Amino acid sequence: MNLEVLYSAAHAEFPDTEPLGGGKAVADYLIREWQASKPFSLAVLSPKSLSIPLSKPLAQLSELQYARFCREFERAATTEILKRDPQHCVVLGNDISEGPNFRTLGERGYRIATIFHVDVVEYFTRFYLHNLIRPETAARFHWFGLMPDMLRLVFEKQYQCVRNSHRIIVPSAPMKDTILRCYPWCPAEKIVVLPWGDVSIHSCATSSSLPSPVADDEIVVITLSRLSPEKGIERLLAALPHLSTQGKKVRVFICGAAAYMKGRAYEQKLRRLAGPITTTRIEFAGHVVGQEKTALLHRADIFLSPSRHESYGLTIAEALSAGCRVISHQHYGAQGEVVDCADPRALAATLGTMISMGRTIKPDLASLEPSRAAGELARILADCHAARP
């Protein structure tokens, strides 16, 4: 196929030791799959390939520093894209605030597909405006020129993204519904629901890869996310004093590193809350990747996602594939046993019920099919190119 895909991915091509979340995980997966299958010519536009210097790790930037990074990446990616003939390429954006200049590219005739990992307008209204304004109300504020630049990265960038993207790829149907409420002029057929999956957890790993030895009779509970307030890990710690373990040994692994805004303070808070708890053994495992992550998912009996917000919940999909029982709060990615994780006693009761079931019987992971998301997205990009007027 005579098609070049320009993949604008601000979180791509970083080492696995960087706790950058689902955007990096999906970008790494797509790049790996497409470099192997070669459905088109792929050019990855990342901070590395665009020679964008970073004064410190991306996940440690403050709000203002991260906003400056977004603008610097936007300028560099847009400049590189404009060197290509729009008749022979499709632009794939890996996110919104970190994306290229959607308006400029749209006006120049480029076909754009954008992956929504997070609806940034909804995220902003939830965590910065505390749900005082609904996202569909906030999305109608169009006085972009009067906004500080950091707010324009939320409201104007998402508006221009929806306006100029030919396809928007979202990981869940509720996320599509929210976008249509925010932008009722957007055709529903423009938005494609494409759940993600990751084949990396199906590789073989042994117990020696675990962060620390685990006894055969221990019930293992894990969380797996960056340590930041929206992930709600403190909800688990609030529930543990109310938990009846019924005489069973329970080990809790809190996996993830402090990342992005408020992460360091949040990690310190979690460690303070965990200190007095004696009913279960709690271990902060840090950022886990590769064989260590695989071993934890294979050994875990219960996976908990107490997040206040998840666009999809990639780690939930991984945990289900690994045969874990899943407890999740009511968010877009909610699966398994859905419970109000903000209620410590309700969460403790659900955990206690699962613990009473004993160890989880794991499936034959070798028989699981790999994700087909990369192939589906490759077809969507080819269709975008073929539909060019």
Structure description:
The structure is a single chain. Helix 3 links the parallel strand 3 (89-93) and strand 4 (111-115). The two termini are 18 Å apart. Helices cover 36% and strands 14% of the residues. The chain has a six-stranded parallel sheet, sandwiched between helices. The protein folds into two domains: 4-196 and 372-386, Rossmann fold (3-Layer(aba) Sandwich); 202-367, Rossmann fold. The radius of gyration is 21 Å and the shape is globular. Helix 9 (233-239) packs parallel to helix 10 (263-274) and helix 9 (233-239) crosses helix 13 (344-356). With 389 residues, the protein is α/β, with parallel strands linked by helices. The model has no long low-confidence stretch (mean pLDDT 90).
CATH topology name of the largest domain, in short, is: Rossmann fold
Order of helices and strands: EHEHEHEHHHHEHEEHEHEHEHEEHH
CATH architecture designation of the largest domain: 3-Layer(aba) Sandwich
CATH homologous superfamily of the largest domain?
Glycogen Phosphorylase B
Cα(first) to Cα(last) distance is 18 Å
Broad shape: globular
Structure described in brief:
The protein has 14 helices and twelve strands.
What key phrases describe this protein's structure?
389 residues, 14 helices, 12 strands, 36% helix, six-stranded parallel sheet, Rossmann fold, alpha/beta, 2 domains
